[in-house]
Specification:
By secondary structure, this protein is an alpha+beta fold. Helices cover 50% and strands 9% of the residues. The chain is built from 18 helices and 13 strands. Strands 7, 8, 10, 11, 12 and 13 form a 6-stranded mixed beta sheet that branches. Helix 8 crosses helix 10. The chain is globular, with a radius of gyration of 25 Å.
Length: 521
């Protein structure tokens, strides 16, 4: 039987990876890997609120796209949709289509579930393309509940399995060009542009490394790399337009963190919970993987087996040189970590012993146990958010108005980062209108504020510092102020209209009557 790892590369045969005999045994590992991926997706459906920092912003964007014409939400009054700003459309447009049926919350969870399932599938394809043992894909779901997801980088997270699949297709094109695969690679690499430019850059860089190390003639390399030309053109055009669109030269300057912190962030890739359960999980996964690596026994190494380790080394070097931020974009360097983890995972050749199988099964068991822990923590986050109180407060606000969110308590007792930072966007999700701070204020999203509905200008990082809110300045463009964790009023002309739990809603007043009910614009 020929498997996906067989073929020729540079005139040298790739050693086959032998499969267990029997149909059921052949299906056992794909089934276990699928079960592990399903377990990784279960926490997404275990709570009312997703504990991801930017999640409310994406939910609001999906709501605007799905219900832009709904007069109750009044989105057309405050927003314009600019589909030429294409960076996030690979996630937003499918989510908006689903949201018309199931709502934005379920739509985003469905797409994230598909990402969790796609990670091991793409890893299996990568492993087999390079003559590795596909069972190593059992580790891939562990890359899901990591920093990019909990920062709320939905579009980038969705791009990761697509990018890994593209790298696998590049290798297959180098080994044995085929017209159907050429078309598929062209579409896959180009589609990444509509998810995230970081993924496009990774695929192009990985393709260059694989081509240079392939040992193939130049004409063969050119034939295999040709499907990437449209992706190169799209990325170059985007970079030129994005830079030209920036009005703040200061915001265009990259900035770096100390080298030691950059190196430590590699180890913090899975640090998403308060406490040590996530660190223990990461330690267990690394220990199991390392044990599989050093286990004694015969290994079948394909020719030029060192190419994937070399690619992992290049990714690490690129990560260490990448800035932390550029303008509105932060944590840029973390975009390299999923690729580093998945390429490193696929770099090894393992023995085919019973102990190897036991260690791989143990990796699945550890991930399923961690998923159960995450379910409990997600539910605890729900209790901390006090969704019933938030719903009560938001119901006191009229739909389709203008709200400013002041989150004085942005941190969580359960999760890292600031999962409450953008909770004010739930007004936009549930009641429509316009909430701030809003990703419509940044230059790369397809949802833009209308130029004929001007905003009171604020510093780019003002949502980190709610204490600088000037109530009198914002009285001209704000109907409501939503606060969390602050018992004091934001100041006149805003007066308390509803308080529940940690949440409070203030409305703009003039004299003895509410300016929200009787607007004096």
């Amino acid at each position: 039987m020929r498997n996906a790892g067989e073929g020729e590369l540079g005139g040298c045969a790739v050693a086959p990876v032998l499969l267990p005999s029997g149909g059921l045994r052949r299906l056992a590992w794909p089934a276990l890997i699928t079960l592990t991926a399903v377990a990784a997706a279960v926490p997404l459906w275990s709570s009312t609120f997703l504990p991801f920092q930017d999640a409310p912003q994406h939910l609001a964007a999906v709501r605007v796209l799905a219900d832009y014409a709904d007069r109750t939400f009044a989105f057309q009054r405050w927003f314009a949709v600019d589909l030429q700003r294409s960076q996030y459309l690979g996630f937003y447009l499918p989510a908006a289509a689903l949201a018309k049926v199931v709502g934005p919350q379920a739509a985003c969870r469905i797409l994230l579930t598909l990402v969790a399932l796609a990670l091991p599938a793409a890893s299996w394809l990568l492993l087999r393309s390079f003559g590795r043992d596909g069972r190593l894909a059992i580790f891939a779901p562990a890359a899901f509940h990591t920093v990019p997801l909990y920062m709320g980088f939905f579009n980038f997270v969705a791009s990761v399995p697509v990018a890994i699949a593209a790298v696998a297709l590049i290798e297959r094109e180098l080994r044995a060009p085929a017209r159907p695969r050429t078309v598929l690679l062209t579409l896959t690499a180009s589609a990444l542009f509509w998810f995230h430019p970081s993924a496009v850059a990774f695929v192009l860089g990985a393709g260059a490394v694989l081509a240079v190390t392939s040992g193939l003639p130049g004409r063969r390399i050119a034939r295999a790399m040709a499907p990437l030309v449209p992706a190169v053109a799209l990325l170059a055009a985007w970079a030129a337009l994005a830079h030209a669109a920036r009005s703040d030269a200061e915001g265009s300057r990259p900035f770096w963190q100390p080298f030691r912190e950059q190196l430590l962030d590699v180890g913090r890739f899975g640090n998403v919970l308060v406490g040590h359960s996530d660190e223990l999980f990461a330690l267990a996964m690394v220990a199991l993987w390392f044990t599989v690596v050093v286990l004694r026994g015969p290994r079948l190494r394909p020719e030029r087996w060192w190419r994937l380790p070399a690619l992992a080394a290049v990714i690490l070097a690129a990560y260490l040189a990448t800035p932390v931020g550029l303008g509105y974009a932060w944590y840029i360097h973390t975009r390299a970590l999923p690729f580093l983890a998945l390429i490193t995972l696929a770099s090894i050749a393992i023995t085919r012993r019973r102990l190897t199988a036991g260690l791989l099964a143990a990796a699945a068991a550890v991930q399923i146990g961690y998923a159960a822990r995450l379910v409990a923590v997600y539910r605890a986050f729900d209790a901390e958010a006090d969704g019933a109180a938030l719903e009560q407060v938001l119901r006191a606000a009229e739909p389709g108005r203008r709200l400013v969110s002041l989150m004085f308590q942005q941190r969580s007792r359960w999760f890292q980062f600031d999962p409450f930072m953008h909770f004010g966007m739930y007004y936009e999700v549930e009641r429509g209108g316009r909430a701030r701070y809003n990703f419509a204020e940044v230059p790369w999203t397809p949802i833009r504020f209308r130029p004929d509905a001007p905003l009171v200008p604020e510093p780019a990082d003002w949502f980190f510092r709610p204490e600088i809110f000037d109530s009198r300045r914002h009285a001209s463009d704000t109907d409501y102020v939503l606060t969390r964790g602050e018992p004091r009023s934001p100041g006149p002309p805003f007066r308390l209209v509803e308080r529940a739990g940690p949440w409070a809603l203030y409305a703009r007043w003039r004299g003895t009557r509410s300016a929200v009910i009787h607007p004096g614009r």
